[in-house]
Design a protein that fits this description.
6 domains; mainly beta; Jelly Rolls; eleven-stranded antiparallel beta sheet; 39% strand; 12 helices; 65 strands; globular
C-alpha cells in the first residue's frame, strides 16, 4: 500500500497525493438536479452532470456504461481543447480545509487544473485508470468558505479525464481543532505527550505555538542524538494490519525509525513540512497484536521530526497478488547451436539458451518470459520487460518474440569479450521492444537493457528492463536470514542503507532501492546482485516485495523519483525520441554477496572509469584538516594560520601525513576571508610544507534575491535566471535551505568558471564540492536537449572537470552515488560531528557501501574527525578507527586553540601503525550484513597473509565480543599472531578472538597467519 502524507496548510489548493484505483462497482446514490449534496458518512457528493453546473467549450454530459458504475450512470466528458466543468452551488456548513475526492475515468494519463471561487488554478497529473471503462479516485485538499462555493475543472487547452462526481469531506474546521483529526470513530488517537509514554535521551514535551494547532497544544521534540519516544499502551482489538498515522512537524527533511513491539526497526523519511509551525501527516501500515502494543520512535543517532500524535486505524492488508507463473514454459527441442569462446548459444523450437559455463539464460519465445540459472540452479524465473507510454506495454504480451542466430553481435569492451543477443518483441500497431542481453566469458554476471523504437515520437519516464510478478519468482536457494539491500540515492539528510527482511509486503514504496540491490541470505552469504551500470540519462529504482524467503515482485526501472530519496518534487523527466533506451542492468549471482557488490562496483568502473590523477595531484589518501567541524561559520584567517602552524609543529612530521603531503582545507565560510587573505593563506600553508584546499557548492543558491546578479556573468544573468524551475516556470522548493541551480544554464557555468579559476589562480590544490544532489533534480532545464536531472548533472559535473583541468583533488561531499566518474573521493555518509552515534551512522554506510572504494571512487570519505566532540577518549579513538578503515580521506577538524582538542590530536593522530592502515586506502568490509538500518560491529580487510580486524562497541556500556575466525575469513586451523595496533600488545589465538571493550571503545588489530 502506498504511504500517504499531507500537510496542514490553509492554501486554496494544497496538493493531491493519494491515488486509489477502484474497479467498477454498483451505481452510487445520485445527486438531484438542483445540486443538493448527497451526504455519505462524513462527506457530501456532487454529480458532474447536475443541471446547475456550467459546461464550456466541448464539455458535455455523456451516458456511462452500466458496467463502469458511474454515479447516476452519467459523466461529463470531452474536456479538451479549452473546455471546462464548473461545479456551482457547492454548499458547506463550515469554513475550512476539505478533502475533495475526484471520481474520474482516464484510459491514458491526463491532467486538469482546479480553481476555487475564482482563485488561482493548480495543476494535477492524474494517473491513468486501467482503461476507459474503469473509474479511479484522486484526492485534493482545498479551502472552502462557509456557504456557497464554485469549483472549476479546466483542461488547460489539453486533454482532461472524464469526470463522474466529486466528494467533499471536512478536514479542518478552523482554529481550535486539529486539521488532521479524523472523523469520530475512525481511529484511536495517542498524544505524544501522553502520561503513559516514555521519553529517553534529549526527548522532551514542548508547547506548540497556537498557529501550529498541535493536538492538545503540545508535542514531543528534541528527538536527536540517541533519543526515543515510546508509546507504551497502544491498544488493538484484534491482530491484524493497521494504518499508523503520524502527525509530525519537520521544517527540514528528517527521518525516524519505528519499532512495533519487538519487531525489527524500520526507517522512514517523511517529507519536510512547510516550516516548523506546520503539522504534516505521514501514514504507514503496521502489524499489531491483539491487546496492548508498543510503538517506538527512534532518531537512530541523528535528528528526527517533532511528534504531535499518532492515530491507529484498522486497515485491510493489501495482499501480494503476484502472478501465477510457476516457470516460463517448455522451450522444446534444440534445433541449432553456436559457440563464441566459452559462450554457448542454443536455439530451441520455442526459445533460446545463453550460457557461459557459470550461468544460463533461458528465454521462451512463445511466453515471452525468461529464467536465470547459476550453477544449474534456477535463481529467477518469469521475468520480462515493460515500458509506460500512453499505456503500459509488457514484452510478454507482444504477439511475437523473435530471436535470430544471425543477429548475434560479438563485443569486446571494459567488461571483457562476449556477445550481444537481442530478442525483438513485435506486434502490429505497437513500437518494437528489444530486450538486449550482453553475456561475457567467465564472468558471473550479465547485462540486460531494453530499447523501444516507434514510427512516431515516443516519450516515457518509466522504462523497466527487468520485471517480475510471480510468486517465489526469485529464490536464491538458502533461507536462514534473507535480506534485501535498500540503497539511498545520495548521502544527504543522514540517509542510511537498510538490510530489510525479504519477507516485506507492506509499505514497499518506502523501500525502493536506488541504483542497486542485493538479495541474499546473510548466514550463507549467497546472493543475487542487481544494479544499473549506466548513469547517463536515468535515475534507476528497484521496487520489490517478498514473502516466504523469496521475492514475488521486482521492477528495475529507469524513471525513479522520490521526495525523500532523490529529493525530487516533480516526476522524473520524460525521455523522448523515436528510439528510447533503458538503463543497462547488471544481474549476477555470487556465493558471497559481498564479492557481488564489489563486482558491481568494478562493472560500473568498466563503463565509466574513476577520475584519474593528473598534473601532480598526489595519488594517495588525503591527510590533513578541514575547518567545518572546528569553526563552522567562525572561520578566519588567523585561525587558518594557527592550524597550519600547529600541524607543522605537532603532526605532519609525526606520521600524520601521506609521503609528506598534508592538506589544510577551508570549508564553507571561506569567504569570511578577504581576497588578499585567501591568497596569503595559501602562501602560509605552502611555506609550512602543506597544500591548501577550498570549498564550493556549484549547484545551490543560498539567497532569496532573484534579482541578484550572478557572479562572473558581467551582469547578463540574475539568480532568477539560473535557478531550476518546474515545467510551469515555478522555482523548485528549497532543499537543505537552498534553491537548486540549473547546471545547463550558461550563467551557472560562468559562475563555476569565475570561482574555480580564482581558486586555481590563488594556488588551491584541493576542492570539496558540496550539495551536488541539487544538480540532479528534475526540472525544466535551459538546454532543450536535456530531458532528465541526471543528464543535467552529467553536464554540470563534466563542466567542473573541464574548468579544473585535473589540477585539483576533487572531493564530492553531499552527492548522488552515481554517476561517479567526476571526483577522486565521495563522502560515504552525511555529516559526522564526532559523537558515538554519528560514528555508528557513518559505519552503517560503510557496512553496505564499502564496495565503492577502489572501484567507482579511488577513495571513500568518512568525513572529518572532530575528536573533542566524541564525549570520551574511547569515543574519540573510535572515530579515528572508523575513519581509518573507511577508505579513506583522513582529515582532522578540531579547534587547535582548545587544549583538550590539542591533547586528543597529539595522542590519536600520531599512531604510526594506525595511520599506516588509513594510508593503505582500502575500505574494510563488514562481517555481517543483517543489521537493518544499523552498522555492523566487526569489519575485516585482508592484505596477503595479514588481516586487519576492527571491532566496535556502539553503546556506553562495557561488552565482550567473540570473533569467529572462520566467519571473518581468517584460517581457523592455524595459530595467528594478534597485534593491537593502538597498544602494540600482541598475543596468539586460534579459531576465535575474545574482545573486551569499554563503553564507546573499539579495537583495531593486525592478525598475521603463521
Amino acid at each position: 500500500m502506498l504511504s500517504r502524507f499531507k500537510f496542514k496548510k490553509g492554501w486554496s489548493i494544497i496538493f493531491a497525493l493519494l491515488v486509489l484505483f477502484q474497479t467498477a462497482v454498483g451505481a452510487n446514490t445520485t445527486v438531484a438536479e438542483a445540486q443538493t449534496p448527497v451526504a455519505a458518512v462524513n462527506s457530501q457528493s456532487y454529480e458532474a452532470e447536475a443541471a446547475i453546473n456550467q459546461l464550456s467549450g466541448k464539455a458535455e454530459v455523456k451516458d456511462c456504461e452500466l458496467a463502469v458504475g458511474c454515479s447516476g450512470n452519467k459523466l461529463v466528458g470531452s474536456l479538451w481543447g479549452g473546455s471546462a466543468l464548473q461545479f456551482n452551488a457547492v454548499n458547506v456548513d463550515t469554513k475550512g480545509i476539505y478533502t475533495m475526492t475526484v471520481h474520474y475515468i482516464s484510459g491514458d494519463p491526463r491532467s486538469l487544473a482546479v480553481s476555487v471561487n475564482g482563485g488561482g488554478t493548480d495543476h494535477y497529473d492524474l494517473p491513468k485508470t486501467a482503461d476507459w471503462s474503469t473509474r479511479g479516485t484522486y484526492e485534493i485538499q482545498l479551502e472552502l468558505r462557509q456557504g456557497e462555493n464554485v469549483i472549476r475543472f479546466d483542461d488547460e487547452g489539453g486533454y482532461a479525464p472524464d469526470i463522474d462526481k466529486i466528494e467533499l469531506k471536512l478536514l479542518n474546521a478552523g482554529p481550535g481543532t486539529d486539521p488532521n483529526e479524523p472523523p469520530a470513530g475512525s481511529g484511536q488517537v495517542y498524544e505524544a505527550e501522553g502520561p503513559d509514554n516514555k521519553l529517553a535521551g534529549n526527548s522532551a514535551v514542548k508547547s506548540c505555538k497556537a498557529e501550529t494547532e498541535c493536538s492538545g497544544g503540545k508535542k514531543v521534540g528534541d528527538i536527536w542524538g540517541g533519543s526515543t519516544l515510546l508509546f507504551q499502551k497502544v491498544a488493538a482489538k484484534a491482530e491484524g494490519i493497521y494504518t499508523l498515522k503520524v502527525s509530525y512537524i519537520s521544517g527540514d527533511p528528517r527521518s525516524f525509525s519505528i519499532r512495533v513491539n519487538n519487531n525489527e526497526k524500520e526507517t522512514y523519511s517523511p517529507p519536510a513540512t512547510a516550516n516548523w509551525d506546520t503539522v504534516g501527516v505521514f501514514s504507514i501500515e503496521v502489524q499489531l497484536q491483539a491487546g496492548s502494543n508498543t510503538i517506538l520512535f527512534d532518531d537512530d543517532g541523528g535528528w528526527s521530526p517533532d511528534i504531535d500524535k499518532i492515530e491507529i486505524i484498522s486497515s485491510q492488508a493489501p495482499g501480494e497478488n503476484p502472478g501465477d507463473v510457476d516457470g516460463i514454459g517448455n522451450i522444446g527441442k534444440q534445433i541449432d547451436s553456436s559457440k563464441f569462446g566459452s559462450i554457448k548459444v542454443e536455439q530451441h523450437k520455442s526459445g533460446v539458451t545463453l550460457s557461459n559455463g557459470v550461468y544460463k539464460i533461458i528465454y521462451n519465445t512463445e511466453s515471452g518470459l525468461s529464467a536465470f540459472e547459476w550453477n544449474n540452479k534456477t535463481i529467477a524465473k518469469g521475468l520480462y520487460s515493460s515500458i509506460q507510454l500512453d499505456k503500459q506495454l509488457d514484452s510478454k504480451n507482444y504477439a511475437e518474440h523473435l530471436f535470430s542466430m544471425k543477429k548475434i553481435e560479438k563485443i569486446n569492451d571494459g567488461h571483457g569479450k562476449g556477445i550481444r543477443v537481442t530478442i525483438e518483441n513485435r506486434e502490429s500497431g505497437l513500437p518494437t521492444m528489444k530486450q538486449i542481453y550482453q553475456i561475457y566469458e567467465r564472468l558471473p554476471y550479465f547485462l540486460i537493457s531494453q530499447q523501444v523504437t516507434g514510427k512516431d515520437i515516443l516519450s516515457t519516464n518509466d522504462m523497466a528492463p527487468l520485471v517480475l510478478n510471480a510468486k517465489g519468482g526469485i529464490d536464491i536457494g538458502s533461507y536462514s536470514d534473507n535480506r534485501v539491500l535498500v540503497a539511498p540515492f545520495d548521502n544527504d539528510a543522514w540517509s542510511r542503507y537498510q538490510a530489510r527482511t525479504i519477507n516485506t509486503s507492506l509499505n514497499n514504496n518506502n523501500y525502493v532501492s536506488s541504483e542497486l540491490t542485493a538479495i541474499y541470505d546473510n548466514t550463507s552469504r549467497n546472493g543475487l546482485v542487481i544494479g544499473s551500470v549506466t548513469h547517463d540519462k536515468w535515475k534507476t529504482g528497484i521496487y520489490w516485495s517478498g514473502s516466504d524467503n523469496r521475492l514475488n515482485k521486482l521492477k528495475v526501472y529507469g524513471g525513479f523519483s522520490s521526495p525523500t530519496s532523490t529529493h525530487d518534487t516533480i516526476p522524473h523527466g520524460k525521455v523522448t525520441g523515436t528510439t528510447i533506451t533503458s538503463p543497462q542492468i547488471l544481474v549476477g549471482y555470487y556465493s558471497d554477496y559481498r564479492q557481488g557488490l564489489e563486482s558491481f562496483g568494478q562493472a560500473n568502473a568498466a563503463v565509466a572509469p574513476p577520475l584519474a590523477f593528473k598534473h601532480g595531484v598526489p595519488k594517495g589518501v588525503p591527510v590533513g584538516w578541514n575547518s567545518w567541524g572546528a569553526y563552522e561559520s567562525d572561520l578566519s584567517y588567523d585561525k587558518v594560520v594557527a592550524v597550519s602552524d600547529f600541524f607543522k609543529k605537532n603532526l605532519q612530521k609525526n606520521s600524520f601525513s601521506n609521503k609528506g603531503n598534508v592538506y589544510i582545507n577551508l570549508d564553507s565560510y571561506w569567504d569570511n576571508l578577504s581576497e588578499e587573505q585567501l591568497k596569503q593563506a595559501v602562501k602560509v600553508i605552502n611555506k609550512n610544507g602543506q597544500k591548501a584546499g577550498i570549498y564550493y557548492g556549484p549547484f545551490v543558491y543560498w539567497g532569496d534575491n532573484m534579482s541578484q546578479v550572478v557572479e562572473g556573468t558581467d551582469g547578463k544573468y540574475t539568480y532568477g535566471d539560473i535557478i531550476l524551475r518546474d515545467q510551469s516556470g515555478n522555482p523548485l522548493p528549497k532543499v537543505d535551505g537552498a534553491y537548486a541551480i540549473d547546471p545547463t544554464h550558461p550563467g551557472s557555468k560562468q559562475r563555476i568558471e569565475y570561482y574555480f579559476k580564482r581558486f586555481l589562480d590563488y594556488g588551491y590544490e584541493y576542492i570539496k564540492i558540496d550539495f551536488l544532489s541539487h544538480g540532479s533534480f528534475e526540472g525544466k532545464h535551459y538546454d532543450p536537449n536535456v530531458q532528465t536531472g541526471i543528464q543535467a548533472y552529467n553536464q554540470g559535473m563534466a563542466h567542473i572537470n573541464k574548468v579544473l583541468g585535473g589540477k585539483m583533488f576533487i572531493s564530492a561531499s553531499i552527492a548522488p552515488l552515481f554517476p561517479s566518474q567526476y571526483a577522486h573521493a565521495r563522502r560515504i555518509s552525511c555529516d559526522i560531528d564526532g559523537s558515538l552515534s554519528r560514528t555508528e551512522y557513518q559505519l552503517n554506510n560503510l557496512t553496505y557501501g564499502w564496495w565503492q572504494n577502489g572501484t567507482i571512487y579511488p577513495y571513500t570519505d568518512p568525513d572529518y574527525m572532530t575528536l573533542v566532540k566524541g564525549g570520551s577518549f574511547d569515543a574519540a579513538q573510535s572515530r579515528v578507527n572508523s575513519a581509518a578503515i573507511s577508505g579513506t580521506v583522513f582529515l582532522s577538524s578540531d579547534d587547535v586553540s582548545n587544549p583538550a582538542a590539542q591533547e586528543l590530536m597529539k595522542k590519536l593522530l600520531t599512531n604510526k601503525q594506525v595511520n599506516e592502515v588509513a594510508l593503505k586506502g582500502q575500505a574494510f568490509k563488514p562481517v555481517e550484513g543483517n543489521t537493518g538500518t544499523g552498522a555492523a560491529d566487526t569489519f575485516i580487510m585482508q592484505e596477503g597473509k595479514d588481516y586487519y580486524l576492527a571491532v566496535f562497541n556502539y553503546t556506553n556500556t562495557p561488552v565482550s565480543k567473540t570473533v569467529d575466525f572462520a566467519r571473518v575469513g581468517i584460517p581457523s586451523s592455524s595459530k595467528v599472531k594478534v597485534t593491537d595496533l593502538w597498544t602494540n600488545a600482541f598475543s596468539q589465538a586460534s579459531g576465535q578472538l575474545k574482545v573486551d571493550l569499554n563503553g564507546a571503545q573499539s579495537k583495531l588489530y593486525k592478525i598475521t597467519v603463521k
